[in-house]
Amino acid sequence: MDQKDNADLQQDYKSQRAWYVIHTYSGYENKVKANLEKKIVAQDLGDVIFDVVVPMRMESEYKDGKRRTVQKKIFPGYVMVDMVVNNYSWFVVRNTQGVTGFVGSEKEPIPLSEDEAYKVLKELAEGRPEDTPIGFSVNDKVRIVAGWFENRIATVKSVDAQKRRVKVLVEGASIDLDVSQLEKVD
């Protein structure tokens, strides 16, 4: 194959390149990512499989009365792969330990649209999008799910969306809580 044919092939691959979603066994997302990355290097697939991403974001949670920041999977059981699908790359990804299949039909995976892929990747880059609604408004009834007043019903008195904090009135006391400590009561 001469230089021109190789350049044409690479240009053709670039036009076929897209983000695909693969389904994994629950809890195997990181293992699938590691296995795929090893295969990309070992089988020299860097020209058809470009990136493997487990979509995750940082979230605050309360556990044992302490606030922690942890990584949470955005789409548990799914991994995103930036690739060109051909018979060999499809076979390699499909037969990676922990992968149950591509999202789409069994023989023809369906890529994410550019807008869908951009939206997910942008959220990953930003951590938590600023426009994520807190979900609480003044006078809402909420249940406290962590802390000293756990399982008690409270009334929202104010919301600080920037800091993701909510002031509530519970049993005559005004307390300031993180949004992760509350759930809305219907």
Summarize the structure.
With 186 residues, this protein is α+β, with helices and mostly antiparallel strands. It contains four helices and eleven strands, in the order H-E-H-E-E-E-E-H-E-H-E-E-E-E-E. The strands form three sheets. A five-stranded antiparallel β-sheet has the order 10-9-8-7-11, with no helix packed on it. A four-stranded antiparallel β-sheet has the order 2-5-1-6, with helices on one face.
Fold and architecture overview:
With 186 residues, the protein is α+β, with helices and mostly antiparallel strands. It folds into 2 domains: 3-126, Alpha-Beta Plaits (2-Layer Sandwich); 141-184, Roll (SH3 type barrels). Helix content is 26%, strand content 35%. The chain has 4 helices and 11 strands. The chain has helices at residues 3-16, 29-42, 87-94, 114-126, and strands at 18-24, 49-53, 56-63, 66-73, 78-83, 99-102, 141-144, 153-160, 165-170, 173-178, 182-184. A 5-stranded antiparallel β-sheet has the order 10-9-8-7-11, with no helix packed on it. Strands 2-5-1-6 form a 4-stranded antiparallel β-sheet, with helices on one face. It is elongated, with a radius of gyration of 23 Å. Residues 7-13 have low confidence and may be disordered.
